[in-house]
Amino acid sequence: MTTDFTSLESALGHTFRDRALLHRALTHKSRIYEKAAEGAPATDNEQLEFLGDSILGFVVSECLVRRFASFPEGRLSKLKAHLVSAARLHEVAQELSLGEFLILGRGEEMSGGREKKALLSDAVEALIAALYLDAGLEAAKRFIETRVIGSLHATEGAAESAVTDYKSALQEMAQTLKLPPPRYVIVAEDGPEHSKTFTVEVRLGKEWVSQAQGLSKKSAGQRAAQQILQQLTEWGR
C-alpha cells in the first residue's frame, strides 16, 4: 500500500480539495474493524460505493443515448450492462493500479485483497462518488467517459463487439431487477466425443427460460444468456 495519492490523482486528472474523500473511497471495511478495535473513529467506502453506483448508471445511460442515438433500447441495455459490470470496473481499476492504493485490514491484506475483483470494482464506484462530492457531476462524468466508456467508438459494429460476455451481463441485469441469480444446466450432449454439441438451459426466476446449443458448454451458455437478455429487453418495453 502507498499513502501517497499524488500519482493516482495524476492518473485521474484531478487533485482533491478534500483529500479525506479520496482516503475514504479507498478504505475497505476490514480496515475499519481494526480501527474500531483500537478506539479510533473511521469510515469505510461502502456508502460512497452506493452513491457511485447510481452516478455511474446515470452517466453511462446519458452518454450512450447521446453517442448511439440510432440504437434501439435493447442494444443500449446490453452496452450499459457491460459498462457498469464488475468485470469492466475491474479493468478500470487495473489500468489505474488501484490495488496499490487500497487501505485494507491485515486479514484482507494477507488474503490477497489488493487483487480481488470485487474489492477493486467497488473501489472504482466509491472513487466516482468521491469525485462527485469533491468537484461536482462534471468531474465524475469526465472520469466515467474517459476511463469507463472511452474505449467505445461511435459505430454500431464496434459498440456491439464490446458486449461479448452475456452471462456477466445477465447476472448484472438480474441484480438490477432484484431477481435470483441465473441457473445454468447442461440438458444434452450430442455427437462423437471429439466433436460434441452441447445444449444448455438457463433459468432466471420462474418466468424466464431459454435453451441454446454450442460446440462448447461455454458458448452454449453464452447464447442462452443472450436469449434471456433479449426476452428481458422485450419485457421491459
Description:
This protein is mainly alpha-helical and 237 residues long. It has two domains: 6-161, Ribonuclease III domain (Ribonuclease iii, N-terminal Endonuclease Domain, Chain A); 166-236, Double Stranded RNA Binding Domain, CATH 3.30.160. It has helices spanning 6-12, 19-25, 29-37, 46-67, 73-83, 86-95, 106-110, 117-135, 137-148, 156-161, 166-176, 217-236, and strands spanning 183-190, 197-204, 208-214. Strands 1-2-3 form a three-stranded antiparallel β-sheet, with helices on one face. Helix 2 runs antiparallel to helix 8 and helix 11 packs parallel to helix 12 (217-236).
pLDDT under 50 segments (min length 5)? 154-159
Question: End-to-end span in angstroms?
Answer: 47 Å
SSE string, helices as H and strands as E: HHHHHHHHHHHEEEH
Using only C-alpha atoms, the radius of gyration works out to 20 Å
Please work out how many helical segments DSSP would assign. 12
Q: What is the CATH top level name of the largest domain?
A: Mainly Alpha
Shape: globular
Could you tell me the mean pLDDT?
84
Number of structural domains: 2
